[in-house]
Design brief:
Layout lengths: L9 E3 L7 H11 L4 E3 H10 L11 H12 L10 E2 L8 E2 L7 H5 L22 E6 L5 E6 L21 E4 L3 E7 L1 H4 L4 H10 L4 H15 L5 E7 L4 E6 L3 E5 L8 E5 L4
Parallel strand pairs: 1-2
Antiparallel strand pairs: 3-4, 5-6, 7-8, 8-9, 9-10, 11-12
Helix pairs in contact: 1-2, 6-7
Length: 263
Amino acid sequence: MNGVTMEVGAVAAMRYVKDGIRAAKLVMQHTQHTLLVGEQASAFAILMGLPGPTNLSSSESIQKWTKWKENHCQPNFRKNVVPNDSCGPYHPKGTTNVNERECSKIDIMAPAEPRSALVGPGNHDTISMAVIDKMGHVAVGTSTNGATYKIPGRVGDGPIAGSSAYADSEIGACGATGDGDIMMRFLPCYQAVESMRLGMEPKEAAKDAIKRIARKYPDFVGAVFAVNKKGVHGGACHGWTFQYSVKSPQMKDVQVFTVSPSN
């Protein structure tokens, strides 16, 4: 995201192309769109010069997938389906057809299912980075491989502007990581930047964004960093201990900051 022009480039559900963040930048630079998805995103990236099509499977990922299949596809992200302890085919509980009568039986006030076992430091790989140049221009980008064992077709918060990243050169920027399915419902980075616009310091803006999510989903796992246009920064997290790094021209080396979960 370009914080000067507010342009955004993003790709989602893209296969066969290794460098997703470069593909996203190509969308911003060479189209008037914001988000490309699926096979057509891959085709666009290759036509624009990125290497591919490439088999992105590794021996490690194939081994992980094989063990998951042997464990009856557990864990997974499905809910309210039968069978719930195998690899399917899945159907809504109580029926093989979705109809209005069955939908009316769903308790919309029921508490959300715990997700802490599905998302954590060991099973995702998001990288979010914000940059302020010498002219004060702000940009931010996020790259992720998505959630392990996700349902095919799933799009996380990585390509969603305002969720995993947001930038406005008049204010600053934000990056986020964690349970993207939950975090994208709150647009925490847009919230953090807007809170800084209203006068909050970056650390307080990050805490406020995280607390808004935790009030609804106390078991969620996630973290946010915020930085204003002066370079003042801060972070907040929930469900884990989070670290982010900072480098400025005045610093000899990168400095790592550790953030403990907010109460």
